[in-house]
């Protein structure tokens, strides 16, 4: 399919070739259509979330601030990989330059690190709102929210910059064909003619530290939240609190479960799990959360749902809004 592209090179290649999903070539057209649909939903949904939060002064609360940042990160995450995937699956254009490959890798890792930090920040926001409601605005001031956002971004940059740098400075004297649909770290590391173990261990250890610590704090927050919720005397207040937290937990499950499965399958189950399954896991955890996050929040959050509907009404029913 790629012809001479499979030849070996004697120095770091100017171009890599992404295979896509090995073994599923017959399904590429369906995958291209599915990914294009999901990407369109992700762009539209997250853009609407950002627009309504920025335009509506009643949504200038900490929870909506973090949700707005999450939507922006979701757009970056999906845009880093999906357009190239669709190009591979639809037209067979699998080439990606050396610099573009590592730029894509950096944005993927940085965006995922920022997203897990934002999920922790949102869990903290719900903890303060439910367990310390009288001190909510005093604790989560604009300066505190800005500080949390800067800390999350700085952490991602500090941890993830060495990862791409270490790998990009290794010699690539073997195949330039990446058996993946984007420049996934482990897949590219296997193409080096030096020992990739240091960079691979760095990836595994620091990903585990970041995700493990965030999940531990998120779990602690929701344990305290549940204790406070079930201590409420009002059943209606209990339902409302559980409904809000339920949407957050759903978003976290969509992000963490396939993400961690992808990381540990690549390390521990690479000889037992088919390659196309490994690649699909890695692909889906980058596109499913950005696609479903705005849908979950748009449906489950009444204020956002109402604002989106009022924003879209003039587009779909211009005559009725003019008449009103």
UniProtKB/TrEMBL annotation:
Keyword match Coiled coil: no
Keywords annotated in UniProt: Cell membrane, G-protein coupled receptor, Membrane, Olfaction, Receptor, Sensory transduction, Transducer, Transmembrane, Transmembrane helix
Signal peptide positions (record): none
Membrane topology qualifier: Multi-pass membrane protein
Matches recorded under SMART domains: 7TM_GPCR_Srsx
Entry's localization field: Cell membrane; Membrane
Residues of the G-protein coupled receptors family 1 profile domain: 45-297
Parts of the chain that traverse the membrane: 28-52, 64-86, 106-124, 144-167, 204-230, 242-267, 279-299
GO molecular function list: G protein-coupled receptor activity; olfactory receptor activity
Keyword Metal-binding: no
Main location: membrane
InterPro entries (UniProt xref): GPCR_Rhodpsn (IPR000276), GPCR_Rhodpsn_7TM (IPR017452), Olfact_rcpt (IPR000725), OR51/52/56-like (IPR050402)
Cellular compartments per GO CC: plasma membrane
Family label: Belongs to the G-protein coupled receptor 1 family.
PANTHER family attached to this UniProt entry: OLFACTORY RECEPTOR 52I1-RELATED, OLFACTORY RECEPTOR 56B1-RELATED
Function: Odorant receptor.
Name this polypeptide is given: Olfactory receptor
Organism listed in the record: Peromyscus maniculatus bairdii (Prairie deer mouse)
């Amino acid at each position: 399919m790629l012809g001479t592209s499979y030849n070996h090179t004697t120095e770091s290649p100017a171009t890599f070739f992404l295979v896509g999903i090995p073994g599923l070539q017959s399904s590429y057209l369906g995958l291209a259509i599915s990914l294009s649909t999901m990407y369109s939903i992700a762009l539209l949904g997250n853009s609407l979330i950002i627009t309504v939060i920025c335009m509506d002064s009643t949504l200038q609360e900490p929870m909506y601030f973090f949700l707005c940042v999450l939507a922006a990160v979701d757009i970056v995450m999906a845009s880093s990989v999906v357009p190239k995937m669709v190009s591979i699956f639809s037209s067979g254009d699998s080439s990606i330059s050396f610099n573009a490959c590592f730029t894509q890798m950096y944005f993927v890792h940085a965006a995922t690190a920022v997203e897990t930090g934002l999920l922790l920040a949102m869990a903290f926001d719900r903890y303060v709102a439910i367990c310390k409601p009288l001190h909510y605005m005093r604790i989560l001031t604009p300066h505190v929210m800005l500080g949390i956002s800067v800390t999350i971004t700085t952490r991602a940059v500090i941890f993830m910059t060495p990862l791409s740098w270490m790998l990009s400075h290794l010699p690539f004297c073997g195949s330039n064909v990446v058996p993946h649909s984007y420049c996934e770290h482990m897949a590219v590391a296997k193409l080096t003619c030096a020992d990739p173990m240091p960079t691979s261990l760095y990836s595994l250890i620091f990903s585990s530290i970041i995700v493990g610590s965030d999940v531990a704090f998120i779990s602690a927050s929701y344990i305290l939240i549940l204790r406070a919720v079930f201590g409420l005397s009002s059943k209606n207040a209990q339902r409302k609190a559980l409904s809000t937290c339920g949407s957050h937990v759903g978003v976290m499950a969509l992000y963490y479960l396939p993400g961690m499965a992808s990381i540990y399958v690549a390390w521990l189950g690479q000889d037992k799990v088919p390659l196309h399954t490994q690649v699909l896991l890695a692909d889906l955890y980058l596109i499913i959360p950005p696609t479903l996050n705005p849908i979950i929040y748009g449906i489950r959050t009444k204020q956002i749902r109402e604002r989106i509907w009022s924003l879209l009404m003039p587009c779909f029913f211009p005559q009725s809004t003019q008449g009103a």
